[in-house]
UniProtKB/TrEMBL annotation:
InterPro entries, per database record: Cyt_c-like_dom, Cyt_c-like_dom_sf, Cyt_C_IC, Cytochrome_c-type_DH, Membr-bd_ADH_cyt_c
Cofactor(s) needed by this chain: heme c
Native source species: Paraburkholderia bannensis
Record localization: Cell membrane
Pfam family, one: Cytochrom_C
CC annotations in GO: plasma membrane
All copies of domain Cytochrome c, residue ranges: 46-149, 194-307, 330-420
Protein name stated in the entry: Mono/diheme cytochrome c family protein
Binding site for heme c 2: C209, C212, H213
Residue sites binding heme c 3 per the record: C343, C346, H347
Source taxonomy: Bacteria, Pseudomonadati, Pseudomonadota, Betaproteobacteria, Burkholderiales
Residues annotated for heme c 1 binding in this entry: C60, C63, H64
Length: 451
């Protein structure tokens, strides 16, 4: 059923693409930028270093390395609604990698999603974001992959997508409809002269924050690729976690975070407001912690310019009554009692946690999001903070899947979402049951002996 629906969407997108029939954009080729005289050894070392930095900011290694495999040799399975897509070998091996890709071939793949043989790449490769890269930055990436990445012989694996969806030609229409043409004037934005412009360039481009944080439309396209609508970075779902709203909303966005809080989070995986978990833990560990302080500050400055996604969200106000009740031992409902027994040792009766160790639940933008998926997922399976240069300790939270029933988890999260000043909707046992199945968590304990 799902397949059929998607096929319709792809065909629909195809029709749209044909109607729009964008004029082939005249992209300025990176070759032009690089062809200005043979570079000196020092200049090419500099170019390679710039490419290494960008590859890390763009997290190429995340998708292009299989579990336990060699860096960039591909073969990681990426789930999509149509089936599994395997990433390509992008090491400079001539036979199985991209060793015979010219700079133009590389540029077409990275910024436009077109492989050397002319077929369109699945958008699991975030070329809609990389379209924002400047020609100079593409040239630097190319130099790095060409001269510093070790060649690995590993043949690409065909997708696990069944016919007819495995045909690549409809992807061409998807690309024509949804992928932007590389931005010709991006150089100005990348100059670093303006902090916010540099932040925008990194967020929309190399760091592809929107690939996770922007909601997707019917064609599975990101609803916005830049801040020209309120959808951009207003929250998406990846691998069973909500990649939450990063806009200015005060309840569930970054409205209450300072620029320094954002920098601390991207650098150390924790701030006074939250700890990174799920996919964000990997992003911090592999990518953002290596960004320069100036670039992190630029990203923070840019994020703080984003208007709230929803009108009229008032700031959350602290409320001491839940903490007083817990401490006095007068709370009787299952949610509060489950909290005292299982959570308060780390997150405290005040919900304020311990700075840099156990995140606060009171007034947290994660806790106050409309969609509780992340919270249920975390309570079921636990989590571990990323380990970074700035904050090496992996503090962890145990999973409660085999200790708490769906009812207990719904009640404790409902308690958390309505205490200490938090103001988010209740969670139902049905929601928990659904997420328990979807993420493959252990079955709930039977409570026959203790109904
Ligand atoms: C979110 C996952 C993801 C990230 C991040 C990513 N890629 Fe990819 N990439 C893929 C997938 C999946 C494919 C294969 C798509 C297909 O088969 O249609 C691919 C394909 C490619 C190809 C085409 C190879 C070929 O055989 O023609 C190149 C080149 C490439 N990626 C380079 C990069 C570079 C450089 C970066 C970092 C700047 C990067 N990718 C980051 C997922 C990713
Ligand atoms: C691979 C998917 C992915 C990418 C790419 C990604 N994020 Fe995230 N991000 C998530 C998920 C999932 C969460 C929710 C878990 C959490 O709060 O740690 C999250 C949470 C966050 C939070 C915490 C917000 C809060 O209120 O607690 C911030 C800040 C953030 N991301 C910023 C960014 C920025 C900036 C980028 C780009 C540089 C980025 N993310 C790229 C998946 C991603
Ligand atoms: C052993 C200490 C410990 C216990 C017990 C514990 N947690 Fe946690 N909790 C943590 C840590 C550490 C994190 C950060 C996890 C990560 O980054 O992956 C966390 C994260 C969270 C978050 C996300 C907060 C944010 O903004 O990042 C929520 C919500 C949460 N816990 C709820 C609970 C609930 C509900 C319980 C009881 C059922 C509980 N925790 C029990 C240590 C604990």
């Amino acid at each position: 059923m799902k397949f059929k629906k998607l096929a319709t969407i792809v065909l629909l997108a195809g029709a749209l693409g044909a109607v729009q029939a964008r004029a082939a954009a005249s992209i300025d080729a990176p070759a032009k930028v690089l062809a200005s005289g043979a570079p000196s050894a020092q200049a090419s070392a500099q170019l390679i270093a710039q490419g290494r930095y960008l590859a890390s900011a763009a997290d190429c290694v995340a998708c292009h390395t299989a579990k336990g495999g060699k860096p960039f040799a591909g073969g990681l399975g990426i789930a999509s609604p149509v089936g599994v897509i395997y990433s390509s070998n992008i090491t400079p091996d001539k036979a199985t990698g991209i060793g015979d890709y010219s700079l133009e071939d590389f540029d077409r793949a990275v910024r436009r999603g077109i492989a050397k043989d002319g077929t369109t790449l699945y958008p699991a490769m975030p070329y809609v974001s990389y379209a924002r890269l400047t020609p100079a930055d593409v040239g630097a990436l190319y130099a790095y992959f060409r001269h510093e990445v070790a060649p690995v012989s590993r043949t690409n694996r065909a997708t696990g997508i069944v016919w007819p969806l495995s045909m690549r030609w409809p992807l061409r229409f998807w690309r024509m409809t949804f992928a932007p043409a590389p931005v010709a004037n991006a150089d100005a934005a990348a100059s670093g002269a303006q902090r916010v412009a540099r932040g925008r360039y990194l967020v929309e481009g190399a760091a592809h924050c929107g690939a996770c944080h922007t909601p997707r439309g019917l064609g599975l396209q990101e609803k916005a690729l830049s801040d020209d609508g309120r959808y951009f970075l207003s929250g998406g779902v990846v691998d069973g976690y909500v990649a939450k709203n990063l806009r200015g909303d005060r309840q569930d966005g970054l409205g209450a975070w300072s620029e320094d809080d954002i920098v601390a989070f991207l650098k150390g995986g924790r701030s006074t407001h939250a700890a990174a978990f799920g996919g964000m833990s990997d992003v911090v560990e592999r990518s953002t912690q290596y960004m320069s302080d100036a670039d992190l500050a630029a990203i923070a400055a840019y994020l703080k310019t984003l208007k709230p996604a929803h009108e009229g969200g008032a700031a959350l106000v602290p409320d001491a009554s839940a903490a007083l009740k817990l401490r006095a031992g007068t709370a009787r409902d299952n949610g509060a009692l489950t909290y005292v027994d299982n959570c308060a040792a780390c997150h405290r009766t005040s919900g304020s946690g311990y700075a840099q160790t156990f995140p606060a639940l009171a007034l947290s933008s994660v806790v106050n999001g409309a969609d509780p998926t992340s919270l249920v997922h975390l309570v079921l399976q636990g989590g571990q903070m990323p380990s970074t240069k700035a904050a090496p300790t992996h503090y962890g939270m145990p999973g409660f899947a085999s200790r708490l029933t769906d009812r207990d988890i719904a009640d404790v999260l409902t308690f958390v979402r309505s205490s200490w000043g938090n103001r988010a909707a209740a969670v139902s046992a049905d929601q928990v049951a659904r997420i328990r199945r979807a993420v493959g968590a252990a079955p709930a304990p039977s409570r026959a002996e203790n109904p």
